[in-house]
Automatic annotation (TrEMBL):
Family indicated by similarity: Belongs to the monovalent cation:proton antiporter 1 (CPA1) transporter (TC 2.A.36) family.
TM segment ranges: 21-44, 56-73, 85-102, 114-138, 150-169, 219-241, 275-293, 305-324, 344-364, 385-406, 418-438
Gene Ontology cellular component list: plasma membrane; vacuolar membrane
Gene it is expressed from: LOC102700075
Descriptive protein name: Sodium/hydrogen exchanger
Length: 537
């Protein structure tokens, strides 16, 4: 349902003026709440315990209480949850901005470790939670839940939300750790959703080796196809803007084309039953590497801040809504006949989240360290604890997947489904607020600022550039201030002939001349290079 449907019905004349007034009032209230979240988030910027996501949750909870009182317990939220609202309108800008703002050199330098944690680790967490859920919940008589539901629970609670930790970590002081937490968070979300979608097509009646192989094949097909589509969409946008020089006549068209093609890649992936998250993430990476350098200087500034702003508003919207929806009276009524069981299930799920996270963070960190020779590339024990903690919070992706599995259009009348929805909301609220509030003190305890201060330019640590920087793409990579290894030991610990080295050769020889990018856009009136030629005058 939602406001978009209501507005559409109003235009068709199917809603009366009273409903129209209610829709407009709801929109006004929600926008006012978003503004409140932004202002309070700014005022609490230096607070030790609270960050913007927790602020939005608290405001959502308080608003839900007020609405409950004014409607005499009939409703707690302004909108009825819509999966389309989340997956089609709110999630794409968040994921695209993550790819667009990513520092590619640092991301791909740690790509194997990030993939190990984000993909393999998520699979381990999924199996840990799913097997434990089957063993425990099947004996608790919580409704008509079957094996497919328990497997879905494994995918739902494998999806992490590392926003709280990323808001605390300093990317300049801990670039390596920041890259792992950030990269793992994105890959984890994509893997969880791909897993969830692959489970929908799994034949659970006749499970054998062939079915398992088909499931794994479907998983890798979704993963690779989605990645290819995102790369293709990004390259296509770069080629079009490079060839046409749209900025000669209108910078607005450049920005509009980038936004629309990014959104088109996501919607096309959803149309083809692929993973829109993976598609739009890699589309963002490719656009920042090629397309962003093909537009005019003013369009570069505009796109950078526009994408970040849309992502910020969408994230705030989600946490605000989750806070309000936590008090939805309908779901709690269906689960109210067994409150002790609901609390028990929520506690068990929270314990499984802790266990599933620990089941892969520490073993995979040990394996990763075995392959690293340089001490500054190894994951220390304190960093492992931070990585484990960063993945304990659950957020909007878990909520959306739970609604997708256990409700129809935001409603449910089945006892077991209602318990799973309320338990998911409880875990999300508890993990985000309690674990989130403890994140700043924990990181300050484990990673004192004095021991992670930014090194002098001549320090070997300067080889690790932050994952997200104020410069886009290869601006930092080509900077003249990058320090080269000053000794034979540094040269051996950082060999020049790496995957990134060969990729740069391939990129400079073939990709950039065709798709543009820094250093390969020919001069033309109105083209991006015109700014650099005349900018110094």
């Amino acid at each position: 349902m939602g406001v978009d449907v209501a507005a559409h019905l109003v235009r068709l004349g199917l809603l009366n003026t009273t409903s129209d007034y209610a829709s407009v009032s709801s929109i006004n209230l929600f926008v006012a709440l978003l503004c409140t979240c932004i202002v309070l988030g700014h005022l609490l910027e230096e607070n030790r315990w609270v960050n913007e996501s927790i602020t939005a949750l608290i405001i959502g909870l308080c608003t839900g209480v007020v609405i409950l009182l004014t409607t005499k317990g009939k409703s707690s939220h302004i909108f009825v949850f819509s999966e389309d609202l989340f997956f089609i309108y709110l999630l794409p800008p968040i994921i695209f901005n993550a790819g667009f703002q990513v520092k590619k050199k640092q991301f791909f330098r740690n790509f194997m470790t990030i993939t190990l944690f984000g993909a393999v680790g998520t699979m381990i967490s999924f199996f840990t939670i799913a097997i434990a859920a089957i063993a425990i919940f099947s004996r608790m008589n919580i409704g008509t839940l079957d094996v497919g539901d328990f497997l879905a629970i494994g995918a739902i609670f494998s999806a992490t939300d590392s926003v709280c930790t990323l808001q605390v970590l300093n990317q300049d002081e801990t670039p390596f750790l920041y890259s792992l937490v950030f990269g793992e968070g994105v890959v984890n979300d994509a893997t969880s959703i791909v897993l969830f979608n692959a489970l929908q097509n799994l034949d659970l009646v006749h499970i054998d080796a062939a079915v398992v192989l088909k499931f794994l094949g479907n998983f890798f097909y979704l993963f690779l196809s989605s990645t290819f589509l995102g790369v293709f969409a990004g390259l296509l946008s770069a080629y079009i803007i490079k060839k046409l020089y749209i900025g000669r006549h209108s910078t607005d068209r450049e920005v509009a084309l980038m936004m629309l093609m990014a959104y088109l890649s996501y919607m096309l992936a959803e149309l083809l039953d692929l993973s829109g998250i993976l598609t739009v993430f890699f589309c963002g990476i490719v656009m920042s590497h090629y397309t962003w350098h093909n537009v005019t200087e003013s369009s570069r500034v505009t796109t950078k801040h526009a994408f970040a702003t849309l992502s910020f508003i969408a994230e705030t919207f989600l946490f605000l809504y989750v806070g309000m929806d936590a008090l939805d009276i309908e779901k709690w009524e269906f689960a109210s006949d067994s409150p002790g069981k609901s609390v028990g299930i929520s506690s068990i799920l929270l314990g499984l989240v802790l266990l599933g996270r620990a089941a892969f963070v520490f073993p995979l960190s040990f394996l990763s360290n075995l392959t690293k020779k340089a001490p500054n590339e190894k994951i220390t024990w304190r960093q492992q604890i931070v990585i484990w903690w960063a993945g304990l919070m659950r957020g909007a992706v878990s909520i959306a997947l739970a609604y997708n599995k256990f409700t129809r259009s935001g409603h449910t009348q089945l006892h077991g489904n209602a318990i799973m929805i309320t338990s998911t909301i409880t875990v999300v609220l508890f993990s985000t607020m309690v674990f989130g509030m403890m994140t700043k003190p924990l990181i300050r305890l484990l990673l004192p600022a004095s021991s992670h201060a930014v090194s002098e330019p001549s320090s070997p640590k300067s080889l690790h550039s932050p994952l997200l920087t104020s410069m886009q793409g290869s601006d930092l990579e080509n900077s003249a201030h990058i320090v080269r290894p000053s000794s034979l030991r540094m040269l051996l610990s950082k060999p020049t002939h790496t995957v990134h080295y060969y990729w740069r050769k391939f990129d400079d020889a073939l990709m950039r001349p065709m798709f543009g990018g820094r250093g390969f856009v020919p001069f033309s009136p109105g083209s991006p290079t015109e700014q650099s030629v005349h900018g110094g005058r």
